[in-house]
Amino acid sequence: MHGGDAGTKPAAPAFSALIDLDRYPLDDHQSPARAQAVADAKAALVADGCAVIAGLIRPSAVQQLDAEIIERKHTTHYSTQRINPYFHVEPNPAYPSDHAVNTFLERSSGFIPGDSWRAGCATDVVFRSPVLASFIAECLGIAELHCYADPLAGLTANILDPGQQFTWHFDTNDFAVTVLVAEADSGGLFEYVPGIRSADDEGFDAIKAVLDGSREGVRTLELRPGDLQIFRGRYSLHRVSRVGHESVPRHAAIFAYTAEDGVIGRVERTRQLFGRVLAEHEAAEVDRVRADALLD
Ligand SMILES: O=C(O)CCC(=O)C(=O)O
Ligand SMILES: [Fe+2]
User: What is the mean pLDDT of residues 80-103?
Assistant: First the structure.
Protein backbone atom coordinates (compact mmCIF):
# COMPACT_ATOMS: atom_id res chain seq x y z
CA MET A 1 0.00 0.00 0.00
CA HIS A 2 1.37 3.41 -0.93
CA GLY A 3 -1.16 6.15 -0.37
CA GLY A 4 -2.07 7.42 3.06
CA ASP A 5 -5.73 7.04 2.16
CA ALA A 6 -5.43 3.32 1.46
CA GLY A 7 -8.33 1.62 3.14
CA THR A 8 -10.55 4.69 3.20
CA LYS A 9 -11.61 4.26 -0.43
CA PRO A 10 -13.49 1.03 -1.05
CA ALA A 11 -11.92 -1.00 -3.85
CA ALA A 12 -13.84 -0.95 -7.13
CA PRO A 13 -15.94 -4.10 -7.48
CA ALA A 14 -14.96 -6.44 -10.29
CA PHE A 15 -17.02 -6.25 -13.45
CA SER A 16 -17.53 -10.02 -13.24
CA ALA A 17 -19.16 -9.71 -9.82
CA LEU A 18 -21.74 -7.28 -11.27
CA ILE A 19 -22.54 -8.65 -14.72
CA ASP A 20 -23.86 -12.19 -15.06
CA LEU A 21 -21.02 -13.53 -17.21
CA ASP A 22 -22.20 -17.10 -16.66
CA ARG A 23 -25.37 -16.37 -18.58
CA TYR A 24 -23.85 -13.70 -20.88
CA PRO A 25 -20.10 -14.29 -21.36
CA LEU A 26 -19.56 -10.82 -22.78
CA ASP A 27 -15.81 -11.04 -22.22
CA ASP A 28 -15.49 -14.12 -24.45
CA HIS A 29 -15.84 -13.19 -28.10
CA GLN A 30 -15.68 -16.86 -29.17
CA SER A 31 -18.63 -17.84 -27.01
CA PRO A 32 -21.82 -19.01 -28.80
CA ALA A 33 -23.88 -17.60 -25.88
CA ARG A 34 -22.45 -14.13 -26.50
CA ALA A 35 -23.06 -14.43 -30.25
CA GLN A 36 -26.65 -15.48 -29.55
CA ALA A 37 -27.22 -12.53 -27.19
CA VAL A 38 -25.91 -10.13 -29.85
CA ALA A 39 -28.06 -11.73 -32.57
CA ASP A 40 -31.19 -11.59 -30.39
CA ALA A 41 -30.62 -7.95 -29.44
CA LYS A 42 -29.91 -6.96 -33.05
CA ALA A 43 -33.09 -8.64 -34.26
CA ALA A 44 -35.16 -6.95 -31.53
CA LEU A 45 -33.65 -3.55 -32.34
CA VAL A 46 -34.41 -3.97 -36.04
CA ALA A 47 -37.94 -5.21 -35.35
CA ASP A 48 -39.03 -2.51 -32.91
CA GLY A 49 -36.12 -0.41 -31.71
CA CYS A 50 -35.94 -2.05 -28.30
CA ALA A 51 -33.85 -4.90 -26.90
CA VAL A 52 -33.87 -6.26 -23.36
CA ILE A 53 -30.95 -8.28 -22.02
CA ALA A 54 -32.83 -9.98 -19.19
CA GLY A 55 -30.98 -10.42 -15.92
CA LEU A 56 -27.69 -8.99 -17.19
CA ILE A 57 -26.93 -7.53 -13.76
CA ARG A 58 -26.54 -10.16 -11.03
CA PRO A 59 -29.22 -9.99 -8.30
CA SER A 60 -26.65 -9.16 -5.58
CA ALA A 61 -25.31 -6.34 -7.75
CA VAL A 62 -28.83 -4.94 -8.29
CA GLN A 63 -28.97 -4.48 -4.51
CA GLN A 64 -25.64 -2.65 -4.62
CA LEU A 65 -26.77 -0.41 -7.47
CA ASP A 66 -29.94 0.48 -5.60
CA ALA A 67 -28.02 1.21 -2.39
CA GLU A 68 -25.80 3.57 -4.40
CA ILE A 69 -28.84 5.35 -5.81
CA ILE A 70 -30.44 5.69 -2.38
CA GLU A 71 -27.14 6.97 -0.93
CA ARG A 72 -27.09 9.92 -3.35
CA LYS A 73 -30.81 10.34 -3.88
CA HIS A 74 -30.68 13.69 -2.08
CA THR A 75 -28.70 15.05 -5.07
CA THR A 76 -31.58 14.31 -7.47
CA HIS A 77 -32.63 17.29 -9.57
CA TYR A 78 -36.42 17.05 -9.73
CA SER A 79 -38.26 19.18 -12.21
CA THR A 80 -41.94 19.26 -12.88
CA GLN A 81 -42.75 20.64 -16.29
CA ARG A 82 -45.46 20.29 -18.84
CA ILE A 83 -43.73 19.20 -22.03
CA ASN A 84 -44.75 18.27 -25.54
CA PRO A 85 -43.21 15.08 -27.04
CA TYR A 86 -40.26 17.18 -28.25
CA PHE A 87 -39.40 18.49 -24.76
CA HIS A 88 -40.70 21.97 -25.58
CA VAL A 89 -42.54 23.85 -22.88
CA GLU A 90 -43.88 26.81 -24.91
CA PRO A 91 -46.83 26.71 -27.32
CA ASN A 92 -45.98 26.97 -31.01
CA PRO A 93 -48.36 29.39 -32.80
CA ALA A 94 -47.54 27.81 -36.18
CA TYR A 95 -49.73 24.83 -35.18
CA PRO A 96 -53.37 24.58 -34.06
CA SER A 97 -53.91 24.54 -30.32
CA ASP A 98 -55.11 20.91 -30.35
CA HIS A 99 -52.07 19.68 -32.32
CA ALA A 100 -49.48 17.23 -30.89
CA VAL A 101 -46.92 20.06 -30.88
CA ASN A 102 -49.22 22.07 -28.61
CA THR A 103 -50.14 19.22 -26.28
CA PHE A 104 -48.28 19.47 -23.00
CA LEU A 105 -48.24 16.74 -20.37
CA GLU A 106 -46.61 16.47 -16.97
CA ARG A 107 -43.05 15.27 -16.58
CA SER A 108 -42.30 15.10 -12.89
CA SER A 109 -39.27 12.86 -12.51
CA GLY A 110 -35.72 13.71 -11.48
CA PHE A 111 -32.16 12.81 -12.37
CA ILE A 112 -29.19 12.03 -10.17
CA PRO A 113 -26.41 13.88 -12.04
CA GLY A 114 -23.10 12.47 -13.28
CA ASP A 115 -21.00 14.32 -10.72
CA SER A 116 -22.80 12.62 -7.81
CA TRP A 117 -21.20 9.21 -8.37
CA ARG A 118 -17.97 8.09 -6.77
CA ALA A 119 -15.49 6.87 -9.39
CA GLY A 120 -15.23 3.12 -8.97
CA CYS A 121 -18.64 2.59 -7.36
CA ALA A 122 -20.53 -0.42 -8.73
CA THR A 123 -22.79 1.70 -10.98
CA ASP A 124 -19.76 3.51 -12.40
CA VAL A 125 -17.89 0.22 -12.96
CA VAL A 126 -20.76 -1.20 -15.02
CA PHE A 127 -21.16 2.05 -17.00
CA ARG A 128 -17.43 2.34 -17.80
CA SER A 129 -16.83 -1.29 -18.61
CA PRO A 130 -15.28 -1.55 -22.10
CA VAL A 131 -16.62 -5.12 -22.30
CA LEU A 132 -20.19 -3.87 -21.88
CA ALA A 133 -19.68 -0.93 -24.27
CA SER A 134 -18.33 -3.18 -27.02
CA PHE A 135 -21.25 -5.59 -26.58
CA ILE A 136 -23.77 -2.74 -26.86
CA ALA A 137 -21.90 -1.31 -29.88
CA GLU A 138 -22.18 -4.68 -31.61
CA CYS A 139 -25.91 -4.92 -30.84
CA LEU A 140 -26.38 -1.48 -32.38
CA GLY A 141 -24.09 -2.16 -35.36
CA ILE A 142 -21.76 0.70 -34.40
CA ALA A 143 -17.96 0.35 -34.65
CA GLU A 144 -17.29 1.57 -31.13
CA LEU A 145 -18.90 3.38 -28.25
CA HIS A 146 -17.49 5.86 -25.76
CA CYS A 147 -18.93 6.91 -22.44
CA TYR A 148 -20.63 10.25 -22.96
CA ALA A 149 -18.02 12.75 -21.75
CA ASP A 150 -20.67 15.08 -20.33
CA PRO A 151 -19.92 15.47 -16.60
CA LEU A 152 -23.64 15.61 -15.69
CA ALA A 153 -25.44 13.57 -18.36
CA GLY A 154 -23.00 10.65 -18.81
CA LEU A 155 -24.04 8.50 -15.87
CA THR A 156 -27.41 9.33 -14.37
CA ALA A 157 -30.27 7.68 -12.59
CA ASN A 158 -33.86 8.45 -13.43
CA ILE A 159 -35.92 8.73 -10.25
CA LEU A 160 -39.70 8.48 -10.19
CA ASP A 161 -41.10 8.87 -6.71
CA PRO A 162 -44.69 7.92 -5.84
CA GLY A 163 -47.14 9.91 -7.96
CA GLN A 164 -44.54 10.95 -10.54
CA GLN A 165 -44.48 10.20 -14.28
CA PHE A 166 -42.16 10.77 -17.23
CA THR A 167 -44.67 11.54 -19.94
CA TRP A 168 -44.67 10.69 -23.67
CA HIS A 169 -41.61 11.97 -25.54
CA PHE A 170 -38.96 11.28 -28.14
CA ASP A 171 -35.31 11.12 -27.19
CA THR A 172 -32.85 13.43 -28.92
CA ASN A 173 -30.06 10.84 -28.84
CA ASP A 174 -30.03 7.88 -31.23
CA PHE A 175 -30.21 5.27 -28.50
CA ALA A 176 -30.39 4.95 -24.72
CA VAL A 177 -29.08 2.25 -22.40
CA THR A 178 -30.99 1.76 -19.17
CA VAL A 179 -30.82 -0.67 -16.27
CA LEU A 180 -33.98 -0.96 -14.18
CA VAL A 181 -32.71 -1.03 -10.60
CA ALA A 182 -35.88 -0.75 -8.51
CA GLU A 183 -39.38 -1.26 -9.88
CA ALA A 184 -42.56 0.38 -8.70
CA ASP A 185 -45.16 -1.96 -7.29
CA SER A 186 -47.84 -0.11 -9.19
CA GLY A 187 -47.39 1.93 -12.37
CA GLY A 188 -43.92 3.05 -13.41
CA LEU A 189 -44.08 0.96 -16.58
CA PHE A 190 -42.02 1.67 -19.69
CA GLU A 191 -44.41 2.02 -22.61
CA TYR A 192 -43.56 2.75 -26.23
CA VAL A 193 -44.98 2.98 -29.73
CA PRO A 194 -42.34 1.64 -32.13
CA GLY A 195 -41.80 3.67 -35.29
CA ILE A 196 -44.67 6.11 -34.73
CA ARG A 197 -42.63 8.63 -36.73
CA SER A 198 -39.83 8.31 -39.28
CA ALA A 199 -37.20 10.55 -40.83
CA ASP A 200 -39.74 11.70 -43.43
CA ASP A 201 -43.06 11.41 -41.60
CA GLU A 202 -43.77 13.29 -38.35
CA GLY A 203 -46.73 11.02 -37.57
CA PHE A 204 -48.53 13.89 -35.81
CA ASP A 205 -52.01 12.35 -35.91
CA ALA A 206 -50.96 9.03 -34.40
CA ILE A 207 -48.89 10.87 -31.78
CA LYS A 208 -51.80 13.11 -30.84
CA ALA A 209 -54.05 10.06 -30.42
CA VAL A 210 -51.60 8.47 -27.98
CA LEU A 211 -51.21 11.74 -26.05
CA ASP A 212 -55.00 11.78 -25.73
CA GLY A 213 -55.02 8.26 -24.29
CA SER A 214 -55.32 5.92 -27.29
CA ARG A 215 -53.60 2.56 -26.73
CA GLU A 216 -53.24 1.94 -30.48
CA GLY A 217 -49.75 0.54 -31.09
CA VAL A 218 -48.68 1.00 -27.46
CA ARG A 219 -46.47 -1.74 -26.05
CA THR A 220 -45.67 -2.19 -22.38
CA LEU A 221 -42.24 -3.56 -21.68
CA GLU A 222 -41.89 -6.43 -19.20
CA LEU A 223 -38.84 -5.15 -17.34
CA ARG A 224 -37.39 -6.62 -14.17
CA PRO A 225 -34.69 -5.16 -11.92
CA GLY A 226 -31.31 -6.15 -13.36
CA ASP A 227 -32.49 -6.12 -16.99
CA LEU A 228 -30.55 -3.94 -19.40
CA GLN A 229 -32.56 -2.17 -22.08
CA ILE A 230 -31.19 -0.77 -25.33
CA PHE A 231 -33.72 1.59 -26.85
CA ARG A 232 -33.83 3.67 -30.01
CA GLY A 233 -36.04 6.56 -28.92
CA ARG A 234 -35.77 8.93 -31.89
CA TYR A 235 -38.71 7.41 -33.74
CA SER A 236 -40.55 5.66 -30.94
CA LEU A 237 -42.76 7.71 -28.68
CA HIS A 238 -42.31 6.45 -25.11
CA ARG A 239 -43.01 7.16 -21.47
CA VAL A 240 -42.72 5.84 -17.96
CA SER A 241 -46.30 5.70 -16.69
CA ARG A 242 -47.25 7.30 -13.40
CA VAL A 243 -45.90 5.54 -10.31
CA GLY A 244 -48.73 4.71 -7.91
CA HIS A 245 -49.21 7.11 -5.00
CA GLU A 246 -48.77 4.22 -2.55
CA SER A 247 -45.94 2.55 -4.48
CA VAL A 248 -42.25 2.32 -3.69
CA PRO A 249 -40.17 4.62 -5.98
CA ARG A 250 -38.87 3.50 -9.37
CA HIS A 251 -35.11 3.82 -9.94
CA ALA A 252 -33.33 3.30 -13.26
CA ALA A 253 -29.64 3.79 -14.03
CA ILE A 254 -29.09 5.46 -17.38
CA PHE A 255 -25.83 4.93 -19.26
CA ALA A 256 -25.15 7.47 -22.02
CA TYR A 257 -22.70 6.51 -24.74
CA THR A 258 -21.65 8.29 -27.92
CA ALA A 259 -20.15 7.03 -31.15
CA GLU A 260 -17.59 9.88 -31.03
CA ASP A 261 -15.24 10.45 -28.13
CA GLY A 262 -15.31 13.63 -26.02
CA VAL A 263 -18.91 14.74 -26.72
CA ILE A 264 -20.57 17.11 -24.22
CA GLY A 265 -24.14 18.39 -23.94
CA ARG A 266 -25.68 21.73 -24.87
CA VAL A 267 -26.13 24.42 -22.23
CA GLU A 268 -29.89 24.84 -22.62
CA ARG A 269 -30.76 21.15 -22.45
CA THR A 270 -28.35 20.60 -19.55
CA ARG A 271 -30.06 23.34 -17.58
CA GLN A 272 -33.48 21.84 -18.33
CA LEU A 273 -32.48 18.39 -17.09
CA PHE A 274 -30.09 19.19 -14.23
CA GLY A 275 -30.96 22.76 -13.24
CA ARG A 276 -27.36 23.92 -13.67
CA VAL A 277 -24.40 23.83 -16.06
CA LEU A 278 -20.67 23.45 -15.41
CA ALA A 279 -17.75 25.47 -16.78
CA GLU A 280 -17.15 22.65 -19.30
CA HIS A 281 -20.62 23.21 -20.81
CA GLU A 282 -20.06 26.96 -21.17
CA ALA A 283 -16.64 26.41 -22.74
CA ALA A 284 -17.95 23.85 -25.23
CA GLU A 285 -20.71 26.28 -26.27
CA VAL A 286 -18.14 29.00 -27.01
CA ASP A 287 -16.12 26.54 -29.09
CA ARG A 288 -19.23 25.56 -31.05
CA VAL A 289 -19.99 29.19 -31.90
CA ARG A 290 -16.35 29.73 -32.90
CA ALA A 291 -16.43 26.65 -35.14
CA ASP A 292 -19.48 27.95 -37.00
CA ALA A 293 -19.28 31.72 -37.06
CA LEU A 294 -16.00 32.71 -38.77
CA LEU A 295 -15.84 36.17 -37.17
CA ASP A 296 -12.35 35.92 -35.78
O1 LIG B 1 -36.35 5.63 -16.93
C2 LIG B 1 -36.44 5.11 -18.05
O3 LIG B 1 -36.68 3.91 -18.20
C4 LIG B 1 -36.23 5.93 -19.30
C5 LIG B 1 -36.73 7.32 -19.16
C6 LIG B 1 -36.60 8.04 -20.49
O7 LIG B 1 -37.32 7.78 -21.40
C8 LIG B 1 -35.58 9.07 -20.69
O9 LIG B 1 -34.80 9.34 -19.74
O10 LIG B 1 -35.50 9.63 -21.79
FE1 LIG C 1 -36.68 8.79 -23.22
Answer: 96
